[in-house]
Amino acid sequence: MYKGLGGITVYFSGAIGGLMAPHPSLPMPHPFKDTLLAKPTFAKAKLIGDQIAILSLNALRNSGDTIKRSNISLRAKTLNMPLENDMFKVAGGISLIKRGLPELFKTRTEVGAIKIGPAMFLSIPGEIYPEIIYGGIEAPEGREFDIQPMETPPIQEIIKDKYKFYIGLSNDEIGYMVPKSEWDTGKPYLYNDDGDTYGEENSLGPDTAPIMYKELVKAIKHLD
């Protein structure tokens, strides 16, 4: 049914913060059979992979650019990020997480940008919320910090290259990067939820996203 199968594929995660994967209870249509898979099984995981492959094959059939020769430009920067998550501090103290601390309550990571022809690739060391990339950051009632969105304009608008790629979990995994105006760990919870969200529990802290946004913008503009 689908021609072009059998090649070597490079897969990377994108802006996956905020639990962007389909919910385990969501029924998914099988790409080759007239059936739905609802239960969270390995077969359903493979189905999602098949759907991604089909989307990729369809995209390759559209007209695009063939780059035969191009310069490659690279910008990378090491960062000492504030570590405010108490659970991460405890995990580091008992060697459950073995990262080391370059400074007291700071952890080392890096950001990067790669320019190849008409394409820009951003190296993001964790799970960034997609609204930081594509827009739509909110400042809802109940937020922890009485501020308006900080990580603006969206990264997608800052990159001027024709093709834009966001490589999440790249070179490191420092957890979630939550827009600071959406940060929430106490009652009343955002959107009338019953509890705090998964992102804050698995983030270095509320300043992670603003710092990462600032450094990504710097890397982009350095290569322009």
Keywords, separated by commas or semicolons:
four-stranded mixed beta sheet, alpha/beta, 224 residues, 18% strand, two-stranded antiparallel ribbon, single chain
What does this structure look like?
The chain is built from six helices and eight strands; from the N terminus they run E-E-H-E-H-E-E-E-H-H-E-E-H-H. The protein is an alpha/beta fold. The protein has two domains: 34 residues, no CATH class; 152 residues, no CATH class. It has a four-stranded mixed sheet with strand order 3-4-5-7, covered by helices on one side. The protein has a two-stranded antiparallel ribbon with strand order 1-2. The protein has a two-stranded parallel ribbon with strand order 6-8. The longest helix has 20 residues. The protein starts with 27 loop residues before the first strand and ends with a helix.
Give the CA-based shape: globular
Q: Strands of the biggest beta sheet: in what spatial order?
A: 3-4-5-7
- SS field, number of helical segments: 6
Q: Gyration radius, to the nearest Å?
A: 20 Å
Average of per-residue pLDDT values: 89
Question: Which spans of ≥5 residues are poorly predicted at pLDDT below 50?
Answer: none
Indicate the percent of residues in helices: 25-40%
- Give the termini separation: 42 Å
Task: Summarize the model shown.
By secondary structure, the chain is of the alpha/beta class. 25% of the residues lie in helices and 18% in strands.
